[in-house]
UniProtKB/TrEMBL annotation:
Alphabetically ordered keywords of this record: Signal
Organism: Zemynaea arenosa
Residue ranges of the TM segments: none
Origin organism lineage: Bacteria, Pseudomonadati, Pseudomonadota, Betaproteobacteria, Burkholderiales
GO biological process, alphabetically ordered: proteolysis
Protein name per UniProt: Membrane dipeptidase
Length: 411
């Protein structure tokens, strides 16, 4: 009997497990071989900096094996990622040392890229991305997250460009002297005159203005000022989930004239309404708690009363992609996992999962041509356009020596 069972399993089990491959997934994997899949935002450099065991240590945080968190080389390969904007995030809440921390993160990201020459290469232009991706490596771009790091200095902005930064998210979650953050205090009703000069100087350099994280007023004013395409490096659709980090319809509709790209984020509270509502209630509870209450205790009690955090799924992300494609157009959309930054949706647990997302869109009727645009062609077009604008502007005007004091009357 036993022998029979063993024999039977030898024949039956492999067949039982080898279920027919999902045709949409096979299609997605084939398509991604000839596409350039570029993700807009991954916080791996901050995870390496903050690693509890070996902080800031690239030897300790090895990407060739199974690394902690959601990103490493084997999983990037499985996910068919060919381009990545590595975020050199610096928290806006630091009391001091914005520039120093930014320089350290730029150094860390550049050392990380250099450490794996078989798998990564620094990319500074759209042409670099195409060349590096063609070699089967991850074209590694650098994006700065939070304009506080320029410390109100256009000289600092230019130096960051020289060190490789190719986008700057104008704010993170804290309002700056020159721009309001989506989750910060509304102080300026958008950009100040110096804030507008920052955008113009980014145009002259060829650094993409990233308007994720800024207030809706800032989004609109950047679109008024910018001579080059903008990006949202990680935001989703406000009409589907009412979160201030998401993009309103009027701004989505302006992507066409601007040439910009909304790289749709996977962040659970941005893509799932029930998840967002749960967090709103929890935040109220946290804010209303007596000072000194253990936040863990608040979450535990809240979960007992309201149930666990509702899960966002891959389908929610696909809904946002469908919506942004409908309102902004298929030429103005990209993807941004925002991995290594916190929670992830079911079905998109790590960087190996992008093909599953493309398979879902194939099931929803997306054409190969539109999927290639979504994967990376759109953002490459925006980059190339921004490079052309920069070439023209560099002939027209010198580097700006404007100061926040002269433009905004601040020191
Ligand atoms: Zn962010």
């Amino acid at each position: 009997m036993l022998r029979y069972a063993v024999l039977l399993s030898a024949f039956v089990l492999p067949c039982a497990f080898a279920a027919a491959p999902d045709p949409a997934l096979v299609h997605a994997r084939t398509l991604l071989k000839s596409a350039i899949l570029i993700d807009g935002h991954n916080d791996l450099p901050w995870e390496i900096r903050e690693d509890p065991k070996t902080p800031m240590d690239l030897e300790g945080y090895d990407l060739r094996g199974h690394a902690p968190n959601e990103t490493d080389i084997p999983r990037l390969k499985q996910g068919q990622v060919r381009g990545q904007f590595w975020s050199v995030f610096v928290p806006g809440e630091l009391k001091e040392g914005f520039a120093r921390t930014q320089l350290e993160q730029l150094d860390l990201a550049r050392r990380m890229i250099a450490r794996y020459p078989e798998a990564m290469e620094l990319a500074l232009t759209a042409a670099d991305v195409r060349r590096i991706a063609a070699k089967g490596k991850v074209a590694s771009l650098i994006g700065m997250e939070g304009g506080h790091v320029i410390e109100n200095s256009l000289g600092a902005l230019r130096t960051y460009y020289d060190l490789g930064a190719r986008y700057m998210t104008l704010t993170h979650n804290v309002t700056l002297d020159w721009a309001d953050a989506a989750l910060g205090e509304p102080r300026h009703h958008g950009l100040t005159p110096f804030g507008k000069e920052v955008v113009r100087e980014m145009n002259r350099l060829g650094m993409l203005a990233d308007i994720s994280h800024v207030s809706a007023d800032v989004m609109r004013q950047v679109l008024d000022v910018s001579a080059a395409p903008v990006i949202f490096s990680h935001s989703s659709a406000l009409a589907l989930v009412d979160h201030p980090r998401n993009v309103p319809d009027d701004v989505l509709r302006r992507m066409q004239a601007n040439g910009g790209v909304v790289m749709v984020s996977f962040v659970p509270p941005f893509v799932n309404r029930a998840n967002r509502a749960w967090h709103v209630e929890l935040d109220k509870r946290v804010k209303g708690a007596p000072p000194g209450t253990d936040p863990k205790q608040i979450v535990e009690e809240f979960t007992r009363q309201h149930g666990p955090e509702p899960q966002a799924t891959l389908k929610d992300v696909a809904d946002h992609i469908d919506y942004v494609a409908k309102v902004a157009g298929h030429d103005h959309i990209g993807v941004a996992g925002d991995y290594c930054a916190g929670a992830v949706p079911v079905g998109l647990e790590d960087v190996s999962k992008y093909p599953d997302l493309f398979a879902e869109l194939i099931r929803r009727g997306w054409s190969d041509a539109d999927l290639k645009k979504l994967a990376g062609d759109n953002v490459l077009r925006a980059m190339a356009q921004a490079e052309q604008v920069a070439k023209r502007l560099q002939k027209e005007r010198p580097p700006s020596i404007a100061t926040i004091g002269a433009l905004d009357g601040k020191k």
